[in-house]
Amino acid sequence: MTKSTRNKKRKKWANYKPLIIISIVLIAIVAVSVVIGYFLTTEESLEDLKSIEQNEPKDTKALESVKTLLEGTWVSNYDGAILSINGLTYNLDLPSVDASVSIKGTLAVEQNLVTFINSNGDEVCRNMEGHYQFTFNEDEVSFKLIKDTCDSRKERMTMSWFKL
């Protein structure tokens, strides 16, 4: 290759360098804004759930008036626990020889995803979120774990439940 041909190619690429750099910067800005938007939206949803939980005595009727796909009473095939869902509140009654344990909380349902937040019960799991994907099979529902740091809930929820 001659020297003039190389210089022409260099000049040609030199003309595109600013355009390439600007494109990369714009793509990076868009990617960062999408990620930030996702986390802000998720954080706002969680704050809404927590504010609902804090205002539970005032808004109990409003929470119970909302109907969800999971509405009703479900019994665990794992240990006979009873999960009662009424609107955006739930009550989980755990069987025990000594005394029954009742865990209450709020939930959020979006399409086939549900988030459980215990408002009482096990001190370790209070206010901890459990995210699950649910599927129906005839009169049973199964919860597939997405993310839950509460081990006792995680073990119980991933088993199938039948509707009473």
Explain how this protein is built.
Helices cover about 40% and strands about 35% of the residues. The termini are far apart. The chain has about 160 residues and is an alpha+beta fold. The protein has an eight-stranded antiparallel β-barrel with strand order 1-2-3-4-5-6-7-8. The chain has two domains: about 50 residues; about 100 residues, Lipocalin (Beta Barrel), CATH 2.40.128.
Instruction: Please count the beta strands (DSSP E, at least 2 residues each).
Output: 8
Could you name the ranges where pLDDT drops below 50 across 5 or more consecutive residues?
A: none
> What general outline do the C-alpha atoms trace?
elongated
The main pleated sheet reads as:
8 strands, antiparallel, barrel
Provide the CATH architecture of the largest domain.
Beta Barrel
Strand content: 25-35%
Structural class: alpha+beta
**Overall pLDDT score:** 79
Count of DSSP H/I helices: 3
Helix content: 40-55%
Q: Domain count, please report it.
A: 2
Name of the CATH class of the largest domain: Mainly Beta
The arrangement of helices and strands along the chain is HHEEEEEEEHE
Radius of gyration: 26 Å
CATH topology of the largest domain: Lipocalin
Measured distance between first and last alpha carbons = 82 Å
Order of strands, main sheet, comes to 1-2-3-4-5-6-7-8
